[in-house]
Amino acid sequence: MAGAQPGSSSNQYVVVWEWYHDSFGWRPYSPYVSQSLERAHSKKLKKLFLGDTEPSLSNYFVLFDRMEQICSKSDKAHQVRRIFYPQTSPAGCGRVWEWCDNAGWKSYNMEVQYVIDDAYHNTASSQLDLSKCFPQLPYIIDFEKDKQIRKESKYERKIRCANIASYPMTKPTDQDVIITLADIRSSKTKRFMGKITSLVKSISVPNSPKKGNQSNTAQSRQPLPGPQDLSQVPGPSGRRVRRPSSDTISTYLSKDSSGVDSNENLVDLDTSKDQTMSTRSAQNKRLAAPDTKNDILRTSSYVVEPPDADCAICYCPLAEKGGYTRQKDCPVELSQCGHVFHLCCLEQMAHDQINQTGIRCPSCKELYGVYSGNMPHGSMKHYVRSYSLPGYDGYKTIEIQYNFKAGTQGPEHPHPGRLYYATGFPRTAYLPDSPEGQTALKLLQTAFERRLTFTVGRSTTTGRDDVITWNEIHHKTSKDNRNGHGYPDPNYLPNLFQELASFGIM
């Protein structure tokens, strides 16, 4: 195999154990947890408690006969798989690519990291369009700015490359799944990758993709700023980091970065000039659920000669039948963006979005119809205060208070019938009482009416499931910038308007 490390066997690959997140796909365990899982797998053990290797995973164990990760507190199960990557991949070179949100740094999925790492080291372009390989990721990676940029809204997030231990190395069998760059980029493997996520008890497939070759044709870039200078990170031909020992216990988090929501800036409720909005009254005014097929046809047109490409939903060729029907289905082209899908796949996608009155293009996120969310019942109040926020001298301050209580999940939520929890409420956000701030308040009220401000899912700060969390509409929860979530921030309101516009709120 091309690109093998000096002194290593060419038929050896790094093995990465991953678990399936309902929203974010296959998430890699840390190198140390993967090492422990690989040892237990080779010894044909039935169960492994992950907390023995990584204390932050003390509530989880893996059942190898079912290939599932189980939470000991909730009994919730997640699929687990064992995947091989070449030694030249980030997993083999001791690198991790991460992006940052309000809760901290989070790693990309391993296949995405592989594509980013190759583009950084082996191409001359300063930008990478992730959507070309991953249609569900409408982002541009800008290596010069160290930013991830959403194509539609232009919203930016920081990215970085960090040092970690390399993943364990072993020799795969003919039945194991090996992922190479050629596999990720080929349309045939896109279909394979889409189907592999549905496997529950085994990731063995009869016809695994062929092992692709990688070539290093471009000069290496300058080191990317990050937690450590990239020049210190071992490259494809550099010295390798010591692989983790099975006796090592690491506190490297394979879950999302931990944190807590702050309640230190709660407002005084005994003030005048306040307005309250409740989702109970707003929900009564919502439109009826769409007639799925007719609504989709009104925003699309049939394609007589479909392009030689795959449907981005089912990963099957557009010229063949879709993944959600047994009969050949005529593809349709969405009117605004021009992307083509199987009609049955769009129907299934819309059907899965319970209580929606609109759909988004899976490729570019273009909105069709009125988009609404699944936020539980709650209240939104706002107050006008006499003080000014940093950067907005001369203007008063708008304080927004959101409040929710625990309840039972409905059919539009991840676990209908199960309780959801309202952690860290009431929550307070801040806007300047300027003309732009007053416009932002009106748009945020519309978002709240459409149940878009919050959602029910897994908290990115605590890792807990079935809690009310923010829903990609960013709020300033501090008056100043001591924790990075306050003022001054001249880009906040323009970015907020772009985020709201991506939900069809303008």
Structural topology:
Layout: E1 13-21, E2 25-28, H1 31-42, E3 47-49, E4 60-63, E5 68-71, E6 77-85, H2 90-93, E7 95-101, E8 104-107, H3 110-122, E9 127-129, E10 139-142, E11 147-150, E12 156-163, E13 169-170, E14 177-178, H4 181-185, H5 187-196, E15 274-278, H6 279-284, H7 292-298, E16 300-302, E17 331-334, E18 340-342, H8 343-352, E19 357-360, E20 367-370, E21 378-385, E22 397-404, E23 407-408, E24 419-420, E25 427-432, H9 435-449, E26 454-457, E27 467-470, H10 492-502
Parallel strand pairs: 6-14
Antiparallel strand pairs: 1-2, 1-6, 1-13, 3-4, 4-5, 5-6, 7-8, 7-12, 9-10, 10-11, 11-12, 15-21, 16-17, 17-18, 19-20, 21-22, 22-25, 23-24, 26-27
Helix pairs in contact: 9-10
Descriptive account of the structure:
The chain has 506 residues and is of the alpha+beta class. The chain has ten helices and 27 strands. The strands form seven sheets. Strands 1, 2, 3, 4, 5, 6, 13 and 14 form an eight-stranded mixed beta sheet that branches. A six-stranded antiparallel beta sheet has the order 8-7-12-11-10-9. Strands 15-21-22-25 form a four-stranded antiparallel beta sheet. α9 runs parallel beside α10. The longest helix has 15 residues. The termini are far apart. The N terminus is likely disordered.
Low-confidence stretches: 1-9, 187-220, 222-273, 280-293
Helix content: 10-25%
Structural class: alpha+beta
For the secondary structure, the number of strands is 27
Mass-distribution shape: globular
Distance between the termini: 53 Å
Q: Output mean pLDDT.
A: 75
**Proportion of residues in extended strands:** 15-25%
| Gyration radius over CA | 24 Å
Main sheet overview:
8 strands, mixed
Q: Treating each run of at least 4 consecutive H or I residues as one helix, how many helices?
A: 10
